[in-house]
Please model this.
Amino acid sequence: MDIRILRYTVLLISILLLQNSCKKDTRLLFDKEAHVYFGQKIEGSSLIGSDSINYSFAFSTEDITQDTIYVQCRIMGLPADRDRNINIVADENNDAVQGYHYKILSSVIPAGKYDNEIPIVVYRQQGLQDSVVSAILRIEDSEDFKAGYNDVGAVGPVYRNKYPRREFKFTITDRLTKPANWDSSWQSVFGEYSEVKIRFISNATGFTEWSGTVFPQDRNFIVQTAYYALYEYEQSNGDLIDENGKPVKFY
Model:
């Protein structure tokens, strides 16, 4: 046999074997059971999906009796042609009572989707004026999904760095509490947290969603408006003093 023909034959057989191997690997990769976890998504220039939310009704008017927070869920694998249910359970040691303090709404990954925001309604109940209740939610196996990642994940401004990606924690209160993302998102522009400081900023800007995601242009407005409002206050009244006896300063 001509040596060139032999080489071409060997090469062709190698390519066919490689293609067959790749097809098998692809089937093995996507034939696995689908998994789901509390994750993140990219929206514009922002990464959404922290591992905890501290919610307070303290900035809301008295007629507001409920609100909705969201937790991001993401799948491992391919989308399906039908809605698939996520099994989200509450930790037995929670002091926030499901059905009284909060209610989890539709927990699904819609057909054709890789992720979804799961809505959680929180209620303004009596007793929250002087207390904080908390809940840890955990993803468990369901008929549609296996529970996904159980690692903590990377550290960063809105990354999950406290709780495993199978868990999500939130707190509910009717008093002012330090937002979970203050140190990572706001301390660099407003400095050390205090109740007087956050009330002043909220009153000056109308902004109250401290634990949520803020787009860059909105953040710039909040910072600039708050800085100017504090300057005007100091020109008329001197230093604004917080509950710890310290002057309120931004940096």
Summary: The first helix runs from residue 3 to 30. Confidence is low (pLDDT under 50) at residues 21-31. The chain is about 30% helix and 25% strand.
